[in-house]
Amino acid sequence: MLKKLAKKISKKQIADILFVAIAIAMGFYFKWLWPDIVIFGVFIWIIINPVPSRLTAIPALGFLIITPFLLIFKKESWAEQTAIWAYYFLIMSVIMGIYEIRKEEKPKKS
Amino acid sequence: MQKIVNFIKNNKFFLLGFLVLAWVIFINLFPKGYVFGGGDTDQFINLKENYFQKIFYGWSGSAAFFYFLFYVLDKIGLSYSTQLSFHLGFIIFGAYISFYIFSRLIFAETSDVSRTLVSLFYSLNLYTLFLFTGNWGYSYFPSLYVFIPILTGLFIKFLKTEKFIYGGLFVLTLFLTSSGFGNPAFALSFTLFIFFLALFLVIFGYIKLSKKLALKITAVSILSLLVSLFWILPITPQTTSGIEGLSTSNVLDFDLVLRTTSSPIFNTLSLLNFTGDHFPLNFYYKILSFLKNIFILFSFIPIFFVFRGLAKFKKLKNKNLFAVFLSALIIFTMLAARSTAPFEITNYYIFHIWGFNVLRGFDKTAIYIPFLLSALVLITIGELNLKKWVYAIFFVTLLAPLPFFIGKIQQTAGQRVSSEKDYKKAGMSFLIKIPDKYYAIQKTINTNKENSQIGILPATRNDGSGIISYPEWKLYGVDITYWLYNKNFIYQNVNYFSNWNFPQEFGSSDNNFDWLIKTLGMMNSRYIIYHKDAPDDSVKVTEYKMRILEKDGLIKNLEENDYFILYKIYDDYFIPYITWQKENIEIQPNIRSIESNFSKIKNSVTLADFKEINPKKFEVAVKNIGNNIILAEKYDPLWKAYYITAAGKELEIKDHFLARGYANGWQIDENIPAKKIIIEYYPTRLMWRGIWISGITVLLLLIYLIKYYLTNIYYAKKIGQKNI
């Protein structure tokens, strides 16, 4: 069973998982909050395996929509936290945007 | 007539925007007889008398353009309250027009409705509301806000088209923006802004760097530097020492400033001011208080639009520019966050880079956020074929800075009056009425043409920055009466002597008070304005002492009323502005030193025969009268003195010393056959050099632009008409 699984997983995938594992380990080492560790893991994963920017923009939008409501309900520290997560996903979206723009440019050149 | 009708038809949305702005000016008209004062900025009044002395020379050219407008307004007799309305109009109309031009330059295909709506948003938003309900809006800093869009538009257009005409216009606009850099920290933040824009334009493939473009960028950078030299040169020696001083100052203080000006991410992205003192977090309208949360929601709508654009990134035509502005927004949001999460460590290192500590004020980085937001919103609503109700939502969002539309940004919604909702009833207000009595003594003081100063008393409690407090007429901040008179002040809360505030000691000393008049007289004060309108505790411990000094014949009471007493210091205690002094008599910063040395100084000085070339330059005739020449200005190594020989050669007098415990003195070498001596404030000399260089550069640029216009537009049109 394990042998079969090992055959299916390529070397690149192993390297990817390793990178993400290191990122998560770093998060634990620096005693980050678990959502920050997850976001950092996602960040590393999508750097290695780019996804369409809208996939990261949607959680960014989601977190941003929650923020003012938390603010209205006097949960300032939560609002600050969701805004930070929105900001993280914003950065990811911009990086994914670079991939998309570069991708579009390549066929134009060829 | 038809032409006008066509113009209105073609520009109806743009003109509608004008109507909205005109309404804002109208509904927020400032009350007659009032001026703006308080905090560390105030309205500069009476510029018809003081512009050249106190602004042009006093500030070595910084902000000279901006205040020249007010000099003209003052000259034609516009009241100070109308000048305030003009100030508001200049910023909001200027911002609107500037953003409109930016959008025409970069997003020519965007509809006029989108363009107008977003330009209005750039002009009237929670950031500009913060400026104008607080006190920053009434200084010269926001003039940079006006020019950010047009400068960015010209810069991007120049990089994209590589046409030098846009580079030339950029340089010329930068020249006009100079007042916005009156605080050089804004110049640094603008350089950062432009640098990041250029970097992201390359990263996102909007422009391609080539050798040719690099050369053109270098040329525009050099020209930008040349047109800015008139304000850069004079501040160079001061900035160097200022930044060094800051770098070596107490790190804890600097970090405290960073902490207190930190804007969390949600505040920055929504433009809700982080202090909570401003609308809508501080909701001024009690009747409408149930709408507070709605307005908080409104403030987030622009950034929702941006995130919505991000979710549709692939569909955007201008995705490169969208990514560029978004990346810049990410950077400037991080800088504005300072020591809030998650940037505590990153920003600690960034703000401790040499020179970056000048960016410690919130505005230095936050001033770019509304523009970046507006540009991103414009791309989103301009390209995503949004339904009409989405436009309606954005239109409603424009109401987020409600006080702009229903008034009054200072009378009822001003930061200092917002708890009372009425500037007349509130204990503190930025709108103040200078009592008429202060105007009444202008004639007495301003007709005295001798070079002398005015001592201000008594010392009052303050926050250490030297600001004053006259609660009788609600002034707490910079002393606005300074602008009424053509003489400089010796302020009550400023240390002229090392670690010695003598007006403060006057309040606490008990026996003999003669030393106070000797000190002020030695410092070239001809008059004293003693403020009876200062806080009671200050007046209580000083007023009777002034009466004793008056009785003893040291000072003459020229005018007394409920607000102040104007005294004149008799000649026996007055030392002129520039004097020869036989020997250097050292004064220690204490009463005893003044008491024991004043007579010696008085007996050893002779009035110098001098001519004022300008308020910062004096020509002194040399007659072997003494070994030292003393200038009654606070010691500053940038005051320099030069021998002028018979051959007209200039030699700097190197022996510059601290005279009389506070002033500038130079020891004269009698062996040098000098015809005259020039005393000059070095930055003023640098300013004139800069004016020449910048002036010639601007002239050449104008010639180029006129030539370009004639050959490429004017004649081309004529030829076109002939061909038709």
Task: Please describe what this structure looks like.
- The complex is a heterodimer of chains A (110) and B (724).
- Chain A is built from five helices and no strands.
- The N and C termini of chain A lie far apart (44 Å).
- The model of chain A has no long low-confidence stretch (mean pLDDT 86).
- Chain A has two domains: 10-49; 52-110.
- In chain A, helix 4 packs antiparallel against helix 5 (76-109).
- With 110 residues, chain A is mostly helical.
- Chain A has helices at 2-8, 11-29, 34-48, 53-72, 76-109.
- Among the domains of chain B are: 142-248, no CATH class; 434-573, no CATH class; 578-682, Immunoglobulin-like (Sandwich).
- In chain B, the strands form five sheets. In chain B, strands 6-3-7-9-8 form a five-stranded mixed β-sheet, with helices on one face. In chain B, strands 11-10-14-18-17 form a five-stranded antiparallel β-sheet. Chain B has a five-stranded antiparallel β-sheet with strand order 12-13-19-15-16.
- The longest helix of chain B has 42 residues, at 682-723.
- Chain B has 28 helices and 19 strands.
- In chain B, strand 17 (656-659) and strand 18 form a beta hairpin.
- In chain B, 46% of the residues are buried.
- Helices cover 52% and strands 12% of the residues of chain B.
- In chain B, helix 8 (143-161) runs antiparallel to helix 9 (164-177) and helix 15 (319-337) runs antiparallel to helix 18 (369-383).
- Chain B has 724 residues and is an alpha+beta fold.
